[in-house]
Recover the amino acids of this structure.
């Protein structure tokens, strides 16, 4: 039995998730949610996403997808493909007793993982920034949205935002 693959993403109203390999907003509330959803789990991310973070995050394992065999940062696992990263994440999740394998970016990794995801934890950031990386709206034929949970911008949040979580509809795995 495999551990469910989940996508965790913050997306602007216009679909933008990044620009020049950096976060384009500051939302402490979303970072707290990200931490809660990833602690104790093996996270899968692309090399550029890892490099934008700059280090392994405490309390969780990091698996970086990279075709660069010489890319071996301390404290992380690497894999040459998403398929191999997810296989490693499954074995690490079992060893850790984790209930999910979070995929946390970037754009190309999300595109590849979308057909495999059981859930999407999406934060809709209410802004319209310029960007160069996008996240597609989940296909309503494949995913059903939970009730949205709207939040005004808190003291340490640059924008208002809404949590919208999606669950894969039965018998649609393998379809975006």
């Amino acid at each position: 039995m495999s551990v469910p693959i989940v996508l965790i993403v913050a997306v602007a109203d216009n679909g933008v998730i990044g620009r020049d390999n950096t976060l384009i907003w500051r939302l402490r509330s979303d970072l707290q949610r990200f931490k809660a959803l990833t602690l104790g789990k093996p996270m899968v991310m692309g090399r550029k996403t890892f490099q934008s973070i700059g280090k392994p995050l405490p309390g969780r394992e990091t698996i970086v997808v990279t075709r660069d065999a010489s890319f071996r940062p301390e404290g992380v696992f690497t894999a040459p493909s998403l398929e191999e990263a997810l296989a490693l994440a499954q074995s690490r999740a079992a060893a850790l007793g984790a209930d999910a394998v979070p995929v946390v970016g970037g754009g190309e990794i999300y595109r590849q993982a979308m057909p495999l995801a059981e859930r999407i934890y999406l934060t809709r950031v209410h802004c319209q920034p310029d960007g160069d990386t996008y996240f597609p709206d989940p296909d309503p034929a494949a995913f059903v949205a939970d009730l949205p949970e709207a939040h005004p911008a808190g003291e340490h949040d640059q924008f208002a935002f809404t949590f919208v979580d999606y669950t894969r509809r039965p018998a649609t795995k393998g379809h975006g």
